[in-house]
Design brief:
alpha+beta; 7 helices; binds magnesium ion; globular; Alpha-Beta Plaits; binds inosine-5'-diphosphate
Length: 145
């Protein structure tokens, strides 16, 4: 079976709006297991690593500033096909068109900002998940990545 782990972030907009529990509720009621969780004030270096693929894009600097604007909650969730499954729970990047029923579709909207504020991050592949878990949980208990 494809037992997987994925890296979820509740972004600063989600934390500010008291939606940490709502995000975790959706992950847990879907049936995935939360296997690690912590609140982090991200700095530029961790975000540069996390968002390396977006360096040079017009929204990169606003994205980094937004992600440093308050704490994030980093979560490792586990389950069969959890990487794909959480991306479906999250909905597409743009909250205006994210399907109702998804986290982004239900809980976020266009705020008119340079960066799209959309409550959550979820790893997009097994390679990304392993890389991102290593970034956010590097200093924690061995075996989590
Ligand atoms: P994802 O979070 O759905 O995987 P990515 O393309 O990896 O989307 O982009 C990372 C984050 O950067 C998005 O979640 C969103 O916050 C922001 N973002 C992505 N594309 C744009 C854009 O075209 N304009 C503004 N912000 C964007
Ligand atoms: Mg992405």
């Amino acid at each position: 079976m494809t037992l997987e782990r994925t890296l979820i972030l509740v972004k600063p907009d989600g934390v500010r709006r008291n939606l940490i529990g709502e995000v975790i509720r959706r992950v847990e009621t879907k049936g995935y297991n939360v296997v690690a969780l912590k609140m982090v004030q991200a700095d530029r270096s961790i975000l540069a690593a996390h968002y390396a693929e977006h360096e040079g894009k017009p929204f990169y600097e606003p994205l980094v500033e937004f992600m440093m604007s308050g704490p994030v909650v980093a979560i490792i969730a586990e389950g069969n096909r959890v990487i794909e499954g959480f991306r479906k729970l999250a909905g597409v990047t743009d909250p205006t068109v994210a399907e109702p029923g998804t986290i982004r579709g239900d809980l976020a909207r266009d705020q008119g900002t340079k960066v799209v504020q959309n409550i959550v991050h979820g790893s997009d592949s097994a390679e990304s998940a392993a890389r991102e878990i290593g970034i956010w949980f590097a200093t924690d208990v061995k075996g989590l990545a």
